[in-house]
Design brief:
- The complex is a heterodimer of chains A (986) and B (217).
- With 986 residues, chain A is an alpha/beta fold.
- In chain A, 48% of the residues lie in helices and 12% in strands.
- In chain A, the strands form five sheets. In chain A, strands 13, 14, 15, 16, 17, 18, 19, 20, 23, 24 and 25 form an eleven-stranded mixed β-sheet that branches. Chain A has a seven-stranded parallel β-sheet with strand order 6-7-3-8-11-2-12, with helices on both faces. A two-stranded antiparallel ribbon of chain A has the order 4-5.
- The longest helix of chain A has 32 residues, at 602-633.
- In chain B, strands 1, 2, 3, 4, 5, 6, 7 and 8 form an eight-stranded mixed β-sheet that branches.
- The longest helix of chain B has 19 residues, at 11-29.
- The chains are: A alpha/beta (986), B alpha/beta (217).
Chain lengths: 986, 217
Amino acid sequence: MSLDNVRTGFTSNWFRTNVDVMQPKEIGFVHPPRKWQSECFETIAPNNPISIINAPTGSGKSTMLSMLAYQRTVSDNKKKTIIAVPQTVIGKGFNTKVFKLPDGQVIDWSVGVDLCTNAKDTVEQFTNFISEDIFYSEAYPFERILVCTHATLVAAFQSLSTEDKQTHWNNLLICVDETHHIQMHEIADEVYNMNSLGQVVDYSFRNNNEIILVSATMFRGDQKGLVSDELLKDATKYNLPFDKYMEEMKHLKSFSYDFIIDTNDYTEDIFKCIKNLFDENLKKLFIYIPHPKSYMSSGNKIKEIQDILEQLKNNLNGDKITLDENTGIYHITNIFGLDYKVCDLVDENLSKRSIKFVNNEIINKDRNALDCVIALNRAKEGFDWEHANGMIVVGQRNSLTDVIQMVGRLLRDKQGKEKVKALHMLPFSPNQPTAPNLDNSLNDFFKAIAISLLMEDVFAPTFLQTNDDSAPTGQLSGATPSVSSNIFDDLELDENQRLDLFDKAQKALVNIAGGLVESQGTYSPEELKEQMPSIMKKWVEENKIEADEQQIEELAKKIYNQFAKRSLQMQGINVSNINWQMIESADPIEFTLRYVGKDTTLESLKELRRLISSGESESNEVCHKVCQWISENKRMPNSRSFELVEKKYGIWIGAQKQAKIGKGENVFYQSNQFIVNSYGLSDLFILLSDEEKSNEMCNQVCQWIKDYNRNPSKDSDNAIEKKYGSWVSTRRKAKKELSKSGNFYESNQVIVESYGLSDLFETRNQEKESNDLCVMVCQWIIDNKKTPSSVSKDLVQKKYGEWLIRTKIAKDSSTKCFYESNQVIAESYGMPNLFDKIDYEKESNQTCHLICQWVIDNNKTPSSTTTKDSIEKKYGTWIINQKQMKNKNSGFITSNQAIAETYGLFDLFEKNDIESKSNENCHLVCQWIKSNNKTPSKRAEDLVEKKYGIWLTGAKYAKSKNKYFYQSNQEIANSYDLPNLFEKTR
Amino acid sequence: MSIQSQVWSGNKKIIAREETIINQYRKIYNRQSIPQDKQYWTMCGNLSDNNNNINHDSEYAQIIREGLIQPHQFKGVEIDETIYKRNKQVLPNIEIYQDDFFKTLNRQANQNQFKPAIVNADLINMPEIGAIYISKIIALLSMMPGEVMLVANLVLDSPYISPTRKKQDIDRFLVNLKNQHKFNAFKHHWNFNNECYKYAGNREHSRTSMGSYIFWK
């Protein structure tokens, strides 16, 4: 074809299309905003630069935020809006939508820059967005709206220079969805410890940008503040309590929360939980499995998923489980037409496909599209599956906020969904330090969930603590108990025996607890503790371990303390005083322990609100009186005043300060803050920076005293004890000189009293105290004909021994205080050398010679446990102690090694090789299996078989927990053609 | 670096320009040339030949030769620095910019320098990305007063794309464009005659299909 043809019209390249791009877009019917959305729009929309919205999950917060963002962006054609969400999956919900404003205007919303969908070079795209002027955006507000993750917001902010921030970080509307991710914790007056997101919000606030904060859970579970007081002061707030929202719901009438406590593998017990929900026709399930590092996890999350699928299949009478490779969805089917669809968001190999599946609107449009979601950290905030009506949460979660977010998944109003239910599976624990019994503790936990749904900022955060590693404090170990105990070594228990002992003790305790609940409705930790020696005794006898009564007692104490660390305790709980009982213990037959939640309805929530309000009004009354007292007396009330009213008010203020930071037993009401503000006493409940630090130290010291059952000494060689001792000393001085220095904090006194240590800061006559102790020590020496040992297991002897050492050191030192009066006392008892230092090495060497000679004479090493000869026992114990010191490389006197070698006893201080011993046992067990053609039973009457059975149980347990299992044993088993020897059998 | 000036100034391209730009403009507005105070904006590519002279088959030479514009009305945008420099070398008095096409138009608009009569968006994108890019240009041009013709030129098919996307046709771009919120928000300003000018890539046995869509207001 030539150009001439074109000019004369001979063309054949034009093709017609039937796609009518110019046809107007059809939107269809759009629901008007909900009642609360209209109210909120009226409250927030008109010119409120800082706004905070708190509304339940599922109530339409995202649409609310879009309505406000649209209104603000349209009203100022230079304003740019940033909507930040915690996860990309939530951001996708902001991409496009159609909604109606309260005035009836239909908005066909589509964000200009969606960095959650187009998540490439997000920081660069973000900085381009805030720096670029798009010409047409004046007529098209969506071009000035960006959606990104919190992480992108932070990264982009941090990438900007100071100059760039000054130029571009202004006239922005910053909307933070799921605001509870912000942290601004006040550490001093107007000084905040902020996380990165908090820093962005704070900078935006200080540079006069507009801010909208939205969340369902306004407080953080880890007791940190969300936003600064200044920001809060400037903010217009809208709070939609759950009960008000429930009034707007058309279908959902109640929810309940049960706690299940058991010790078995959770993937076994979950069968009963699933059945429990299925029996109530709650078949649209969320199952949140525990973190692999947590106590309840097997460590193999993929296997756990497979086990859960099996349990679902068993409950459903399914025939098979198949995986749809395209969608990543499991189908549980049978010949009768069952097709139960399970989405696994845990397995990384599937999650890309399964996430895509659950992000599709089909899961809400088609009730049959999905039946169950199994998740670990996903599918919480922002995850929208309206049909979900049942939930199983396994193990302790990060915070109360986390739990509320999970519960929130169920609280979506949907036709045919009148009731929802959550089952929370927790590990067994024998005691609950802060609650009289377990059901009260759990009731408090549920109360905290319900209250947080009702109230905006009344309650200090709280969380349920177990020995789960995923717990926020991280202070409790979920691992198998420490095995470095002296008593374990003294009894020469190998690793498998220790694990077996722990396992048996736990099961025995659970049985006892279950029995007690059955017979008396509850039990106390003390009742369980009392049972420990008999459990230990039984185990010791069964395993033919020689142990005396004292050793059994010690073993019982050791094991119990390990369990006690798993306490289901409430920290910072402030709800105990509200008499709202929604959890009660139930028939424990089905599970070890079960606590059933009553149906929480609109009526019960209203009752809870009434109860909270009544507590609040009483507290408000006291607050007014305190403020009036301060106004009249022009000073703060003293908690140690002899005047009872002043004392009461002083104590009340101290307690309120504690409550405000989420500590102590009291509730802090925001209304009290308003009251004190009205009296011009806005700082009344604020702990000063130094005071707060002092309180922290005070708590540490009190805990130390509780742990060690004595006061810390400032003269101790132990750095921590010395630090604590010095601190107590300065506090005593401060208290004594209160009128002069004035730096003693009443809040410290409140704390020590809460630990039952009210005299801690009272000044003592130390010399007199020391003299009294000196008399007791001298008398003890005369009675016992020996000097007390600082390492004795007898606490009195230990205390006297430690005192003696400290006093000897003091006498020897020119810098430490030694009372000559003690020397006079010692001399009066005929002990003039009592405080003279001993040459320990010489003494130890002498003992070593004696023991070596004993070994040569008796041709064996002395036993600390299997002999009744007191000398042999003493020598045996001495050798164990030396071994430990050598092993720990702490305090071992090397000249003793030289002495032993002169006797030809080169290995006298070498520790037994536990692995070798374990290998020997493994060989014996394998040979036994080969000879008898069966695995040994721990319940066998034949003692050898029983012993081998017990050993094998322990080894299996060790392997299943992946702790203290020797791979060499596996190799030995393989060599006997028993590769599955250590696999757990069901 | 050797620049293949043949690629965009070959016979097929010349005919396509004649059909989709020159003839279309004259037919739509019944005018031989664009008004004196208006501009012709294009993603210009290489305008020189291998001897560093003006390429007489180039877009610049063709539309001036055809009398559609005067040289000062030509506004070229080229993102490649080497091509840009060569263009500036052979046409030192012509306004040529080195940047992204949309960014340049947007900047000119913000500076109140943007007075388009014809915009030739000669993209090398496939329909999916092309629809996003064109909708941005349409949104921007919607805000400009008076008559504007937009020529959206895209790759409909390419030998380099995966077999699953091989079945590109002229509808693909329009289906994608219809889903662009921005396009929908501004389309009421525009006309479109439901036609696409489809032609093969410029090499003799090229398997690439190109398509041009004309929007005008």
